[in-house]
Design goal:
The structure is a single chain. By secondary structure, the protein is of the alpha/beta class. The chain has one domain: Metallo-beta-lactamase, Chain A, CATH 3.60.15.10. It has 9 helices and 13 strands. The strands form 2 sheets. Strands 1, 2, 3, 4, 5, 6, 7 and 13 form an 8-stranded mixed β-sheet that branches. Strands 8-9-10-11-12 form a 5-stranded mixed β-sheet, with no helix packed on it. The longest helix is centred in the C-terminal third of the chain and has 13 residues. It is globular. The two termini are about 25 Å apart.
Length: about 260
């Protein structure tokens, strides 16, 4: 058995939006206080290799979707000494606009994606605005072009990329949503992405309203719990508490980058 690597894991905050709880939970109370949403990309790295997880969106998309754009994710990567133009591998948790909008800034990268996500994003459900609303057709078409260029690596379910780094199909939010399990100095950590937008979605068993399969989403929460020894090592995909619960690597990165492991 190959030796398991230990990785550092970082979250980079690049955008935010004000929301009500009714927008974040099916059946949420519209009279509750505001509940903002943050947008992240993530970095998994050790001495041997750097993996970027998702690519975020750009300023044009922020204006279109009325999000507050704080900075390009590329700027956050630079703070960690990472040049997006030189990144060789990007894990794509799913193909929604806020997770794949800057792939053109990674010209040398291969993209790691579930078969079922590409099928979902190009299949029959995209004729329905309920399912298609969080996708950008130009980005999906561009990703298809990457397939033809040999730059997309496809997986069907669980796959170990390296010892200590693996992909796990969850579904629920989209048909091909995958999460990233990472071995760190603090044990197993899972980048849950949109398997649970907020920790409260999972803890209170109250799904986020953008969902392809609610039953899969519920099952996915149990899968997440089974992947870690400490539930705090499940990192939700959009929860502002991530920036509160974890520390920046140094003062220059405060409010931008936190280390998760």
């Amino acid at each position: 058995m190959a030796e398991r690597n230990s990785y550092e894991v970082y979250a980079i905050r690049y955008a935010t939006v004000d929301r009500l709880s009714s927008e974040n939970f099916i059946g949420g109370d519209p009279h509750e206080a505001g509940m903002p949403m943050d947008y992240f990309v993530w970095v998994v790295r050790n001495e041997q290799k750097t993996w970027v997880v998702d690519t975020g969106f750009n300023e044009e998309a922020a204006k279109k979707r009325k999000r507050t754009f704080l900075r390009s994710p590329i700027e956050g990567l630079r703070l960690l000494g990472i040049d997006g133009a030189e990144v060789s591998d990007v894990i794509v948790t799913h193909l929604h606009y806020d997770h794949i909008g800057n792939f053109d800034l990674f010209p040398k990268a291969n993209f790691h994606l579930q078969d079922s996500e590409m099928a979902y994003a190009t299949g029959r459900h995209m004729a329905n605005p309920f399912f298609a609303g969080a996708f950008e057709v130009d980005e999906i078409v561009a990703m298809v072009r990457n397939v033809y260029q040999g730059r997309v690596k496809f997986y069907d379910g669980e796959h170990e990329l390296e010892p200590g780094l693996s992909l796990h199909h969850i579904g629920g939010h989209t048909k091909g949503l995958q999460v990233v399990r990472v071995w760190t100095r603090s044990g197993w950590l899972v980048l849950a992405s949109d398997a649970t937008h907020y920790r409260a979605n999972m803890d209170e068993k109250s799904p986020f309203p953008i969902v392809a399969d609610i039953a899969e989403m519920f099952d996915g929460w149990q899968k997440l719990r089974n992947m870690v020894d400490d539930q705090k090592m499940i990192i939700p995909g959009h929860d502002p508490e991530v920036m509160v619960e974890h520390l920046a690597p140094d003062k220059s990165m405060e409010g931008i980058v936190v280390r998760l492991d």
